[in-house]
Amino acid sequence: MKLKDIGEFGLIGLIRKGVPSPGGEVLVGIGDDTAVIKGEGGNCLLLTCDALVAGVHFDLSYTPYRELGWKAMAVNLSDVASMGGVAQYALVTLGLPPGTDTAKVEELYQGMGGLGERFGVRIVGGDTVSSPVLLISLALAGEVREEHLVTRSGARPGDSLLVTGTLGGSGAGLALLKGGLPFPQGMERLVRKHLAPLPRLKEAALLVANLKPSAMIDISDGLALDLSHLAAESRVGAEIWKEKIPLHPQAKEVARFLGRSLDDFALYGGEDYELLFTLPPNQVQRAKGLLKETGLTLIGQILPPKEGLVLSEEGRRLPLVVRGYDHFSK
Ligand code: MG
Ligand code: MG
Ligand code: MG
Description:
Elements: H1 3-18, E1 26-28, E2 35-38, E3 43-53, H2 65-81, E4 86-96, H3 102-118, E5 122-130, E6 135-145, E7 160-164, H4 169-179, H5 188-195, H6 201-210, E8 215-218, H7 223-234, E9 237-241, H8 251-258, H9 262-266, E10 275-279, H10 284-290, E11 296-303, E12 309-313, E13 316-319
Parallel strand pairs: 4-5, 9-12
Antiparallel strand pairs: 1-2, 2-3, 3-6, 4-6, 7-10, 7-11, 8-10, 9-11, 12-13
Helix pairs in contact: 2-3, 2-6, 4-5, 4-8
């Protein structure tokens, strides 16, 4: 069997089978946004890593090194946010073609360090290797109070499903970059959303300090795919009310401009790095008040497992088609 036959998530399942399941001080192992290790005095250690590879995650023809560094930090911080935690230390592995301009490496670190500093993260080490393509891999260590920890697996039927900010902006920004056309005025903001996303650490901290989200994940692969992960880990079904999805205001314009389906951005456009989470319905108003500035939208609900994943649109209920980026299958 080849990787392309089982896909990225089949591979993760395979790896999961081969390593011991969590136990003892390991509260959460493979399969969540970060690993969670029980520490002293009610604190838990969070560990995560994520890599960006040229030609796979980004294209150097339209990605400045500074933004690339920022994004490498942002995607990892977003995983820490989705556990309700804070990040503290980073290790950086760089794979570099020997012809890389040293000034570009400095720019990369400026972007990475700049965003890290904003959220109290210190770069404390790493590794540098020669590589045929540019590769940047970050590992983060952070922490969370055990009572504030939110995994993917705690959603219960009847819980409300909410998402921060807006969706589709990053996907629309990427589509513009890939289109290679001069894009209409005012759309630079979308491109910025794709190249330099802002992780929702502040929002996560507010949520876990004041409320009790039952499950949370960050949207890296698209709303449909990330919801499917949350539902699978929680062993529940879920329903999205399509009309309620908070689309980025310019995503519609881009869909029209490029002749793309809006679903590509709303349901399947990844890399928005917003938080998707579940809450008992009686906490929804309070949550909206807490996240007034960023915006928070009720987009659906958690269902019993036998109902599966449902997309409701204009009163019709259809099975939610789950697709998104998969590293190994087409
Ligand atoms: Mg994640
Ligand atoms: Mg990744
Ligand atoms: Mg990760």
